[in-house]
Amino acid sequence: MSPDGDTLGPMTAREYDVIVIGAGPVGENVADRTVQGGLSTVIVESELVGGECSYWACIPSKAMLRPGAALRAVRDVQGAASAVTGELDAAAVLARRDTFVHDWDDTSQVEWLQGAGIDLVRGHGRLTGEREVTVTGQDGAETVLRARHAVAVSTGSAALLPDIPGLREVQPWTSREATGMREVPASLAILGGGVVGSEMATLFTSLGIPVTVVARSGLLRGVEPFAGEAVAKALTDAGADVRTGVEIERAARDAGGDIVLTLSDGAEVRAAEVLVATGRVPRTADLGLDSVGLTPGAWLDVDDTLRVRGVDWLYAVGDVNHRALLTHQGKYQARAAGDVIAARARDGAVDDGPWGAHVATADHSAVPQVVFTDPEVAAVGHTEASAEKAGLQVRVLDYDLSWVAGASEVADHYRGQARAIVDEERRVLVGATFVGQDVGELLHAATIAIVGEVPIDRLWHAVPSYPTISEVWLRWLEAYGR
């Protein structure tokens, strides 16, 4: 590798045990595990080493969301509230973001690769044959890489732009423009009520920007309904305009430069910018999938060891396999994929049974997620609806978190709700949802209970500390009974 990590020097071809396409957190983890498994590994990246999460998604968005959450928390504690005057400093919020993304400089990430023994080739990688990747650099030069054992695709996903007349022409923002903005817009319209739309509505509302959210099916549709309802109420109370049951029919810019969105009910929404947050598409369109008999632009179908079905040397890890579009789940998959690639290269045993070391079993039943809205939403496993759809006989345990003694220690006007889903046949927890301030820190306990299939009777002996919000576990057990 050259000192600056740009290329491997002048060459036409080079052979490795493993080639990883995509140097985000997922690709980095695949490569780290294969190197630890004794396999020579090269990683290919066309943008910044560290990927979407580090520079345009998880890290910058949470860095910008935290000041608003901190301000709301202080304002709801008597004795502290009087010490705070004024509103958020938008410029300081953006400056804080810049420190987290290192001003979009990946030097430290490249140094990590070097220290881990992972080679780097910068450029756009495409599959050009069996176990072969051709990388085109910015100067047009091509480097051919060949893998003795495996190629892993970890190219992630990109924002979906719906086919709405005029939308592309108004140059809408995606999550990248929102998290990478240099200046705060005068107003913002958000199309979509999922995680990105809800978090960005929370962010821009906290910055004092007029925000309109257009979400046909409401907010946070994939979790328990009460979670989205709580977030919508908080946004409305903070001054946002949340419109559900309608959709955008067309978009255009007026003579003054504002974007005008015409809704299906005939109403119009005007904003300086519009953020599209309606879903994701895989970054596989220009990956050369057709060279190995796969469909360009498609999600890659994998087995539980993350191997692409029908191509025994190709792995798809992270967003591209559409199993769970979350960084932590992608890294979890990466650990399994890297280890199984190394095992297969050594003709070693493959532990591919349920909860085995070489499979991503948790993708099916124990995916945790925190949504950093106001209030915070944390969920893992089944919702009531998904459990019933799966044919489970369940019992639902609901509890108002404001009734827990620890909640009043956190905030003077704490509002929140917690729901547990119990599989009655096995008497184990299969789902949990928490809504309220700081509930993200409750989630891992629920994740452990679900993954470990801890019996309800044993949970009685896991005593929550007092006074903390974790006391909700005791309240759930009391509601369930012995």
What's this entry about, in short?
With 482 residues, the protein is an alpha/beta fold. The chain is built from 15 helices and 21 strands. Strands 1, 2, 3, 4, 5, 6 and 16 form a 7-stranded mixed sheet that branches.
Helical content class: 25-40%
Which structural class is indicated by helix and strand composition? alpha/beta
Assigned CATH superfamily of the largest domain:
FAD/NAD(P)-binding domain
Distance between the termini: 62 Å
Q: How does this model look, in words?
A:
With 482 residues, the protein is an alpha/beta fold. The protein has 3 domains: 13-50 and 106-158 and 282-362, FAD/NAD(P)-binding domain (3-Layer(bba) Sandwich); 168-278, FAD/NAD(P)-binding domain, CATH 3.50.50.60; 375-480, 2-Layer Sandwich (Enolase-like, domain 1). Helix content is 30%, strand content 23%. It is built from 15 helices and 21 strands. It has helices spanning 25-36, 51-56, 58-75, 90-100, 107-116, 175-179, 195-206, 225-237, 327-345, 362-365, 384-389, 405-410, 443-451, 456-459, 472-480; strands spanning 13-21, 41-45, 119-122, 124-129, 132-136, 142-153, 157-159, 188-191, 211-215, 241-244, 248-253, 259-263, 268-271, 273-276, 280-282, 314-316, 368-371, 377-381, 394-400, 417-423, 428-435. Strands 1, 2, 3, 4, 5, 6 and 16 form a 7-stranded mixed beta sheet that branches. Strands 17-18-21-20-19 form a 5-stranded antiparallel beta sheet, sandwiched between helices. The model is unreliable at 1-5 (pLDDT under 50).
